[in-house]
Amino acid sequence: MVNEQMVNDKMTRTEIEEKVRDFLIEDLEIDEEKVYPEAKLKEDMGIDSLDLVDIVVLVDKSFGFKLKAEEMAGVDTFAKFCDYIEGKVKG
């Protein structure tokens, strides 16, 4: 069995963005046109605290790590969220 973390280490930025974009659109049912780099998670995409619970599960399932609230301070756009995930998987 291939270690999921090893697979994630080799992901490109584009692959990370696509994976995040896919679960935001498919699992959280966010309109596709609302998912763009500068889009604000709360204001533009409408992500609320209940959605964040789902996002924690989706990130763990998709990337193999748990989001930590204290590390998410200042992560307010799609691009910053992808930056955070990229930093964790390539750490």
How would you explain this protein's 3D organization?
- With 91 residues, the chain is mainly α.
- The chain has one domain: Non-ribosomal Peptide Synthetase Peptidyl Carrier Protein, Chain A, CATH 1.10.1200.10.
- The chain has helices spanning 4-9, 13-26, 49-63, 78-90.
- Helix 2 (13-26) packs across helix 3 and helix 2 (13-26) crosses helix 4.
- The radius of gyration is 12 Å and the shape is globular.
- The two termini are 22 Å apart.
Structural descriptors:
mainly alpha, globular, 91 residues
Approximate strand percentage? under 5%
Compute the number of structural domains.
Answer: 1
Tally of DSSP helical segments: 4
Largest sheet entry: none
Can you tell me the CATH topology? Non-ribosomal Peptide Synthetase Peptidyl Carrier Protein, Chain A
Helix content estimate: 40-55%
Q: Mind telling me the CATH superfamily name? A: ACP-like
CATH class category name: Mainly Alpha
Describe the global form. globular
Uncertain ranges = none
The total beta strand count reads: 0
Secondary-structure arrangement, i.e. CATH architecture: Orthogonal Bundle
Mean pLDDT over the full residue set? 90
Q: Class by helix and strand content?
A: mainly alpha
| Cα radius of gyration in angstroms | 12 Å
Instruction: Report how far the terminal alpha carbons are from each other.
Output: 22 Å
